[in-house]
Each structure stands twice: as structure tokens, then as C-alpha cells.
């Protein structure tokens, strides 16, 4: 998958792209990130990309000219949707990550300062927010999107099953995980996980997953795909279904 990232700070991406799963995805040819510096498109003699807001008020606004030219440069290479990372956007979820992972190429526009000139909306295709808070710039949000989407691309994870079992994959939070040693500071790994009985382990994990979701994010249960056995278990825990 190809991401075209439009940013004023391309160097911010170097670190995340050169570690762990994203690094391996790049090496395997599963991920390509084209970093496009918006400043390179400024026609101002001082390469300015921001200016004061009409009507007054604090901060600066990203000017339309460099943004239009940078976006048109990307769009001249194909039918590439441009998503603006913005606190006003649709909240990014695992479901959205799954949808985006099916696409061949998308562009991510990172804002800065007070954001972009409103007229730039004419050339963007969507807006993505990573949550109800304000970041300094869209770069960290773009990295979040790239990371979450890349894990879902076929062939990126060495154990694809982990993407299916992780929290949110079925609107349920993941079951508890343990590793060695069997006893740490008096705390034991649950006996069932040492039993070798795969059916019992699967049942225990499913029930823990339901229990944790009920405790920490009951709102998710409304969307989860629940079996009759799941519903019975949740009713026993006091959940009305
Ligand atoms: C300081 S913010 C601008 C906030 C803007 N003045 C507002 O109140 O909506 C600068 C940039 O950070 C990015 N940004 C901030 N919060 C974000 C969020 N929650 N999700 C995605 N991008 C965000 C956007 O690209 C935005 O243009």
C-alpha cells in the first residue's frame, strides 16, 4: 500500500518508519510512504506557507496555494483520495483502519498552526480525527493511521491471527495474556492456559474477552457479534441483553 503524506515536517516520519513492524513492511515492499514537503510547493519568495487569519484572532493559517499545488501534484499521479487529519474529522476506529487497508494508495494531509484555509476542502476527500483532543500538527495522527492500517495489510504481520484476535477486531477487547514464568511474585498464570486443552483455552479466552469488555467498554457490546452462549454468559454477569 502507498501513503502519500503531505506535511511541513517530513523528517518526523523517519523514526517510526525505521523501526519494528513498519520498517519490516517497508522492507517487504508491503508499505511505501512518499513524504511530500508542502513547503516545496510554495510560490512565495520566502517559501512561506502560512499567513494571518482574515478577521483577526490568534495563530496562523495554512495558505491555500501551496496546499492546492501539493494536492494537485498527488492527484496527477492517479485517483488518490486525500484525507485531511483534523480534529473535526470522523473518529478513526479499527473498522476505518480495515476499510483503508483495502485501498492501494491514499494521501494524508497534515495540518499545522490553526489549520488549513477553508477553501482547501474543495480538493480533499475526507477528514480523519484520531480523537477528541487537539494535537500540534497532523503528523502524529498520520503516523497513527499508517501504523494501524499497515498491520492489517496481508503479509505484514508474521502471525495474521493476532490482527483477528486483537481488541476491537470483533468489537470485543482482547483476553488477558501471560508469558513465562508460571508464577511471578506469587501471582499464578491461570491453570487453564497450562492445560493444553485448546477448546477449554478458547472458551476461557472468549469469556474473559466478554467480561473485560463488559467491565471496561460496555458500549462496544452493542455492536459485537454475540453467540447465544455469549449472551447467556453476559446475562449471568448482570448484562441486560
Ligand atoms: C493545532 S491543530 C488546529 C486545530 C484547529 N484550530 C481547530 O480548533 O480545529 C493543528 C493541526 O493538527 C492536526 N490535528 C489536531 N488535532 C487532531 C486530531 N485530534 N486528529 C487529527 N489531526 C489533528 C490537524 O491537522 C490540524 O490542522
Automatic annotation (TrEMBL):
Keyword list, A-Z: Cytoplasm, Methyltransferase, S-adenosyl-L-methionine, Transferase, tRNA processing
A matching Pfam family: tRNA_m1G_MT
GO molecular function, one term: tRNA (guanine(37)-N1)-methyltransferase activity
CDD domains assigned to the protein according to its UniProt record, in alphabetical order: TrmD-like (cd18080)
Residues where S-adenosyl-L-methionine binds: 111, 130-135
Primary localization: cytoplasm
Catalytic activity annotation: guanosine(37) in tRNA + S-adenosyl-L-methionine = N(1)-methylguanosine(37) in tRNA + S-adenosyl-L-homocysteine + H(+)
Gene Ontology CC: one annotated term: cytosol
Biological process according to GO: tRNA N1-guanine methylation
Domain spans labelled tRNA methyltransferase TRMD/TRM10-type: 1-223
Top EC class, one word: transferase
Cellular compartment(s): Cytoplasm
Enzyme Commission number(s): 2.1.1.228
Record bears the keyword Cell membrane: no
Subunit composition and interactions: Homodimer.
Function according to Swiss-Prot or TrEMBL: Specifically methylates guanosine-37 in various tRNAs.
Membership in a protein family: Belongs to the RNA methyltransferase TrmD family.
Protein name: tRNA (guanine-N(1)-)-methyltransferase
Organism: Caldanaerobacter subterraneus
Lineage: Bacteria, Bacillati, Bacillota, Clostridia, Thermoanaerobacterales
Gene behind this protein: trmD
Amino acid at each position: 500500500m502507498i501513503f502519500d503524506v503531505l506535511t511541513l515536517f517530513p523528517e518526523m516520519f523517519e523514526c517510526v518508519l525505521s523501526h519494528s513492524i513498519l520498517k519490516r513492511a517497508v522492507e517487504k515492499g508491503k508499505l511505501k510512504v512518499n513524504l511530500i514537503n508542502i513547503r516545496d510547493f510554495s510560490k512565495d519568495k520566502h517559501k512561506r506557507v502560512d499567513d494571518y487569519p482574515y478577521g483577526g484572532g490568534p495563530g496562523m493559517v495554512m495558505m491555500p496555494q501551496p496546499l492546492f499545488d501539493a494536492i494537485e501534484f498527488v492527484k496527477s499521479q492517479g485517483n488518490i483520495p486525500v484525507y485531511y487529519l483534523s480534529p473535526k474529522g470522523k473518529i478513526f476506529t479499527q473498522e476505518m483502519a480495515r476499510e483503508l487497508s483495502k485501498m492501494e494508495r491514499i494521501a494524508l494531509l497534515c495540518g499545522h498552526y490553526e489549520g488549513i484555509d477553508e477553501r482547501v476542502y474543495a480538493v480533499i476527500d475526507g477528514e480523519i480525527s484520531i480523537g477528541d483532543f487537539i494535537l500540534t500538527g497532523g503528523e502524529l495522527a498520520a503516523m497513527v493511521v499508517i501504523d494501524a492500517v499497515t498491520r492489517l495489510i496481508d503479509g505484514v504481520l508474521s502471525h495474521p491471527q493476532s490482527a483477528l484476535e486483537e481488541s476491537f477486531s470483533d468489537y470485543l477487547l482482547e483476553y488477558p495474556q501471560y508469558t513465562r514464568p508460571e508464577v511471578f511474585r506469587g501471582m499464578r498464570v491461570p491453570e487453564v492456559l497450562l492445560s493444553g486443552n485448546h477448546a477449554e483455552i478458547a472458551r476461557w479466552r472468549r469469556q474473559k474477552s466478554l467480561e473485560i469488555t463488559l467491565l471496561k467498554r460496555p458500549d462496544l457490546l452493542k455492536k459485537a457479534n454475540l453467540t447465544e452462549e455469549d449472551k447467556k454468559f453476559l446475562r449471568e454477569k448482570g448484562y441486560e441483553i
